[in-house]
Design a protein that fits this description.
Four copies of one chain form a homotetramer.
Chain A: E1 4-10, H1 14-30, E2 36-43, H2 47-57, E3 61-63, H3 66-71, E4 77-80, H4 87-96, E5 100-104, H5 111-124, E6 128-131, H6 138-148, E7 155-163, H7 180-183, H8 187-203, E8 206-214, E9 219-221, E10 229-231, E11 237-244, E12 249-255, E13 264-271, E14 274-279, E15 285-290, E16 300-304, H9 312-315, H10 325-342, H11 350-369, E17 373-374
Parallel strand pairs in A: 1-2, 1-4, 2-3, 4-5, 5-6, 7-12
Antiparallel strand pairs in A: 7-13, 8-11, 8-17, 9-10, 11-12, 13-14, 14-15, 15-16
Helix pairs in contact in A: 1-10, 4-5, 5-11, 6-8, 8-11
């Protein structure tokens, strides 16, 4: 019989809904061995929203105070899906109570605070997971394999970008994403951090960075249709050069006004024996080149992902049958449950998340100082 | 409050599981307006399987006799997910009882029997849906739009193929797919029928066909590892030329031993004003060319599907965020529920299914007579 | 010192100019060992054109009677670049005089006449070359290698098309291409014959064919801007199924009204061990899949052609440095010179050309009889 | 009748041969109006080479002293195709004599010297052309058009790279490319300068740069097969961020050890209204996205270049008929002749070349100082 994993969720918005749906899919697909998610209590600051969402999502109880979640005996994992600015406070409180925590990314809006959470999590020795869903993609698993197995040789370069054009239209009004206090940063935190998560997993630590950032649309209507304009405080675009501890170099960037790019997280990893490329708009494919192939037959291979790659085989029995973007979250949640239930290893712990948040902070700093900045070690 | 749609399912295998999961996802994604699926009774010939699957899938009751499903007052829709050879008998019995039926494809193993089912369904005036899931893809919706809107002009050609290489290995043992009585046909019925469903939806009726078929691996082990060999009776490959009622011509084919092709349902539609192409291995993209574009800027457009295309917007808010192959089934099931609950139109009725089964029968006949054969009208 | 190869050219139009330029490039690139082309005499029925072109192209003499070319002691090779309808008469006369002949394709407008030329050429034992330039492409050389080496295993399928949209516009006036007596056929002879030449080289003989053809634009202005319309007599589109002597099957087609396709000679060769694809719009690439690759790293390889492939290395020292469409003709002419001078083997002799013309005739016949037709052996 | 353009060539190596062949092709393709190239005198330091090449290339005279070329009354244009390190000295001497000069790139190994040449050329008011052949590509012409016409809106980003893997193998011995005195720089000067030439033409001036460089293979055999190793002094890889005067930003790079990349000069230009991409391995294509397209039909257009784009129409009558890498040089030489003969405008004058050489110097400096460096204006 399946062990129960009792979820206390903080936040009842779009991301909460996605988590609930992913718990259910994960349990259905991976089966009993990962533990059965049980929806114990849902918190939202808005009483109406807490109540109706609890019913819709299948939670037994609801509250408007996150302490009720943290203090509940019915909760094994505190699942934090609030707006970004609240992650730190809630996660810290939960950890200090000795609760296991599964938080959406980012852990906090500052490198320091995220490092603090990682430290507490380690001291408290509880399960701690931060939701960088792209780390769990079959494509990422395959790229990690290519690097770790040595098939690509010594890695010389890791180039990447995460480009979208969703904010290209200047009539799109101001929102939390544009305000520094609420978002911490713009394209970097929102999109670029995903790129950093893949980089961190595959390449390890970045030693220093050198960045430049731009706000291309400096003013936006304060609300839809308004002629009153407010200031955009966070970057539309950021580019940085990274120097990796392993000796490699990278050019990375992110834009939210990248015309024509819809979900273009593109990566190219060049090693002395091979090169791999990937683009999230085609998330079921990785291209790879092996220098050792006979030259007459040599070229980039368009590998359609399949059961050989990460958790793909949990979803489909053969390659070429596409997984979705949302399936990444299902894989993540399955690993959350499995790790909690069975003690299996997991990549995206708070230390991992703190490393990314520290990179984000350092990159932002470099964009201001216009100099190479070291990424703090911890 | 949501209307209940009570499901009686016949068959407890892999496809049954997929239907159940799709009902739940459809309800979660499309919401209450499409009706709430309720899992009333599950039938399987194997008692143990019926019992355990009923529990796992969430059915209230189980049985080993499909008549219990058909006769149940708790059942609104009889959902048939048995092996292909049994679809006809069960669907017919259900229709004659006046039950609504949702059957996996094909309706039967013969054109005649499928036509008979279509006729009965019409007489009984009940809901009747056959599960050609690719008809509901956003990609198909977009190609249909391109043709219907006149953007492609008068259609001259519809070329397509559905290629996989899953049966390339001669050591894969005999299975129902290889036996004519159980499968009706090989690559044509299994894969090519999906291509025909897209063709039927977008292009309308085929007038006549001219086919050639091959069995490349004529003998296979009777079971895994056995040295005893049995005959493969169904085609590994079939190719046919189609003459459409609308004046267009097509070269179509299907292979289950198409080395390197994993899920390659490829289509090219050429009209006097434009051309569209698609490949299921990249199911979130359609390429389209418009002759009217200024020549200096003219070329095939790689359209990443998005909320403009079919039901994509039910899943994601912006283009470039990939849907999965499985999401097609979710869309289908959502339309099944919506059509049943609200009387909305649907494409894949039994007449539609019977047209495809009639084409299949005619193509097989032509492969034997080695002549052009007319597709029977009904 | 280089041996001289004295050219007598019949025809002073666009193709003549291309041949002259290719002779010069070939000699410059391949060097003295292939023989030095010397331009002895040029014939054109139009005196003015003969005279001015002779000067422009560098011919020593000119004439308006092709017999002067055939009878000239200064001519080693009679190079025929007239309109198609005259190839047969001139080639026959030259062969009967014992002259070596290099004729543009097709050899004649009928299978029978081309067979007759092949027979005479053999009896006279002279050099005889027909200009199917795509046979000499690096891409074709590589595909031939893949098949001959056994890397693709036993070939099951050869699919291909040659599509252009140059005649899509109905206001383009009637020309020789549209008139049966002058052109023999339409899309098939003009474009499809190139596809057949690649097929013949790689796959060997076709046993029988089954075709359908269409004239989509049945009337065109008799001249540009005219309102007077004339009948188009040759097919805009033809599709045929081919049954190869080696047991493989093919779906092939050609269209001159294929919207969006500019120079789309596409090929797919499926064997039991691998599959290769090619498209002339990207003539410096071949995609190939090897079933024997480890499944985790397996996918179509995008091979950028290079010095390993055919005569590429004569042009560039490394792969990825694109050759042009015109370079194919240079390679052909280099082989013409080399074969004549040094007696090296060549593929595109008159027998090869007659086989293609026989296929063309058989395909046209099948499009009329609407039946499978055998390709005559000779 | 055609005006003669008398060429005095300095250098008899591979590049000299390429120039001669391009002069001849250019004259043959573009015709008399651009002037007829006449090969007056060829200089090479090696007497034997000068003599034999003069004969082979068709020069009337030869010499081992470049002053003979500069001082010759039979020379209109001094064409410099020596090793890079000698360009400056010869070009300067020629300019000071009032000769027109066509020099291969780079003008010199330092920004300062190139600026000096540009200044002298201006003072002397003679024809001065530097051979950045990629500026004349149809693809470049089209990208320039997209930017200049405003079709892409305000340009936000220009990203690019020029990657090859020709020097990936550590057993390739030391050559001039690896020695600072002879080459000036490594991947940057050799490859990256071409990227800079496209950038300069399309984007205008770079204001400041920030670079990082690497030597991945620090020692190589002093000659093929030797076990004695020598130091590689020039970078294998360089990456830089560029800040453009027009407000745009760019991440650019170049590697000569980029595994799998054969001739990958890739560019992406993002503007507020559209985005264009290009890759030299497919030099007959540009991809372009227009934000103004209706969203349902919107996507990157794969434009096969044709007569609408630059000088393509001089080579082929329709799109999809590929030009070669070498054709770029033919276009360049045609413009050299045309500009000299008819006084038509040209892009790649010495000032243009000096700007690129100044960028190269500044980028190298930044890689040493590890700071943003301003590109000197002149």
């Amino acid at each position: 019989m399946s062990k129960k994993v009792r979820i206390g969720m903080v936040g009842a918005g779009w991301m909460g809904r996605a988590h609930v749906s992913s718990y259910m899919s994960a349990y259905s697909i991976y089966g009993e061995k990962i533990g059965e998610p049980v929806f114990s209590i849902l918190m939202d600051v808005n009483e109406e929203s807490a109540k109706s969402s609890a019913e819709k999502f299948g939670f037994k109880k609801w509250t408007t105070d996150y302490n009720d979640v943290i203090n509940s005996d019915d909760v094994d994992i505190v699942d934090i899906v609030t707006p970004n600015a609240f992650h730190y406070e809630i996660a810290k409180a939960a950890l200090l109570k000795g609760k296991s925590v599964y938080s959406e990314k980012p852990l906090s809006l500052s490198g320091k605070q995220s490092q603090e959470l990682a430290k507490i999590a380690k001291e408290k020795n509880v399960f701690n997971y931060v939701g960088f869903n792209m780390v769990m993609m079959p494509a990422t698993a395959y790229m990690k394999h290519l690097v770790e197995s040595g098939k690509l040789g010594q890695i010389m370069r890791f180039d990447g970008r995460y480009d979208q054009d969703m904010l290209l239209d200047p009539s799109i009004p101001l929102a939390w994403r544009h305000i520094k206090k609420q978002a911490g940063s713009g394209a970097l935190g929102d999109l670029g951090s995903h790129l950093l998560s893949i980089s961190q997993y595959i390449m390890g630590d970045i030693e220093s960075v050198n960045a430049i950032s731009k706000i291309y649309i400096p003013k936006r209507p304060i609300k839809a249709g308004s002629t009153k304009m407010g200031n955009v405080e966070t970057e539309d675009y950021i580019a940085f050069t990274a120097s990796y501890k392993n000796g490699a170099t990278g050019q990375l960037s992110s834009s939210r006004v990248a015309t024509g790019r819809k979900n273009y997280l593109g990566v190219e990893i060049q090693g002395t024996l091979g090169t791999a490329t990937f683009n999230l708009e085609r998330l079921n494919e990785v291209n790879v080149y092996f220098h050792k192939d006979k030259s007459i037959d040599r070229g980039f291979r368009n590998v359609l992902l399949g059961p050989d790659h990460g958790d793909y085989g949990m979803f489909q029995p053969a390659s070429g049958i596409e997984l979705s973007y949302n399936d990444q979250k299902v894989i993540e949640v399955a690993h959350v449950l499995d790790a909690f239930t069975n003690g299996t290893d997991y990549v995206c712990n708070f230390k991992f998340g703190a490393k990314i948040d520290t990179c984000v902070a350092t990159i932002l700093k470099s964009a201001e100082t216009k100099q190479w900045e070291k990424v703090e070690e911890f």
